[in-house]
């Protein structure tokens, strides 16, 4: 009896963590962020989808390269949220879409923009962030020398250069741009900028679970069930609307 009691005591910590998933995360407001409410809207969707399946999320925040590395090599269970690619599908189980991201071309209102393909940006001073992929059309035009892109260290710096007239065009996720303009720029500065309604690229972003972690295939099935239930409840649409409405009004 004493041996059984001892075994039960030793197994309690394992039982307590059996329904926990450890996920890496990064900073990309308002989707993701350590100090944001719910750690950002994408994190909230991931966490609540897992909760519907009885799984608790433990978040670990790192710079993006480390977040992906730790998840890929099984140092954590997975990471949120990412574009899917053939390379990532080799290392990860990739979820159904969590959120949609739409990149648009921002410009000053006193310099109107008309474009249909990236080649139409030839002759303009185009900005961009280092290591950002803006889609096949844009990347191809840059690679072939049809457009010249000034790659900058971060998007806030790029927006300030756009305001200062040092670049003419800047691609950004629309929701991220609105959030940054609202939190780091004045109303007078925001009033100087606009964006073209034609998306440069639109993509879905996904939870990824490492194939090196045992049980992650089953975990992904759980997550996708929880995500569908959360979507069917209308909460995903509600959360995305909540995070965008004040930004649109403030912009």
N to C succession of SSEs: HEHEHEHEEEHEHEHHEEHH
> Poorly predicted ranges (pLDDT <50, ≥5 residues)?
3-17
Count of beta strands: 10
- Biggest sheet statistics: 8 strands, mixed
* Strand-pairing-aware structural class: alpha/beta
Strand content: 15-25%
Give helix % range.
40-55%
Description:
43% of the residues lie in helices and 22% in strands. Strand 6 (126-129), helix 5 (136-143) and strand 7 (149-152) form a beta-alpha-beta unit. The longest helix has 17 residues, at 216-232. The protein is globular and about 55 Å long. It is of the alpha/beta class and 251 residues long.
Key attributes of the depicted protein:
251 residues; alpha/beta; eight-stranded mixed β-sheet; two-stranded parallel sheet; disordered N terminus
Quickly describe the structure.
This protein is of the alpha/beta class and 251 residues long. It has helices at 2-17, 41-51, 64-72, 86-91, 136-143, 155-163, 174-184, 187-190, 216-232, 235-250, and strands at residues 20-25, 56-61, 78-82, 92-94, 99-108, 126-129, 149-152, 170-173, 193-195, 201-210.
List the helices and strands and how they pair.
Elements: H1 2-17, E1 20-25, H2 41-51, E2 56-61, H3 64-72, E3 78-82, H4 86-91, E4 92-94, E5 99-108, E6 126-129, H5 136-143, E7 149-152, H6 155-163, E8 170-173, H7 174-184, H8 187-190, E9 193-195, E10 201-210, H9 216-232, H10 235-250
Parallel strand pairs: 1-2, 1-3, 6-7
Antiparallel strand pairs: 3-10, 4-10, 5-8, 5-9, 5-10
């Amino acid at each position: 009896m004493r041996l059984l009691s001892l075994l039960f005591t030793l197994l309690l910590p394992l039982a307590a963590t059996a329904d926990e998933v450890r996920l890496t995360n990064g900073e990309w407001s308002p989707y993701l962020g350590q100090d944001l409410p719910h750690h950002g809207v994408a994190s909230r969707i991931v966490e609540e989808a897992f909760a519907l399946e009885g799984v608790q999320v433990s978040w670990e925040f790192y710079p993006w390269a480390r977040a992906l590395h730790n998840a890929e090599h099984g140092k954590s269970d997975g990471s949120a949220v990412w574009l899917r690619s053939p390379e990532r599908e080799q290392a990860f189980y990739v979820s159904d879409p969590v959120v949609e991201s739409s990149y648009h071309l921002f410009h000053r209102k006193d310099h109107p923009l008309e474009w249909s393909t990236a080649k139409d940006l030839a002759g303009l001073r185009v900005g961009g962030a280092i290591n950002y992929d803006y889609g096949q059309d844009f990347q191809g035009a840059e690679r072939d020398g049809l457009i010249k892109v000034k790659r900058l260290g971060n998007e806030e710096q790029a927006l300030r250069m756009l305001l200062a007239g040092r670049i003419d065009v800047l691609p950004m996720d629309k929701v991220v741009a609105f959030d940054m303009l609202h939190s780091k720029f004045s109303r007078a500065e925001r009033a100087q900028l606009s964006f073209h309604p034609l998306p440069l690229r639109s993509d879905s972003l996904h939870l990824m679970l490492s194939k090196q972690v045992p049980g992650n295939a089953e975990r992904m099935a759980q997550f996708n069930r929880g995500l569908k239930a959360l979507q069917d409840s209308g909460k995903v649409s509600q959360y995305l609307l909540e995070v965008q409405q004040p930004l649109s009004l403030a912009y």
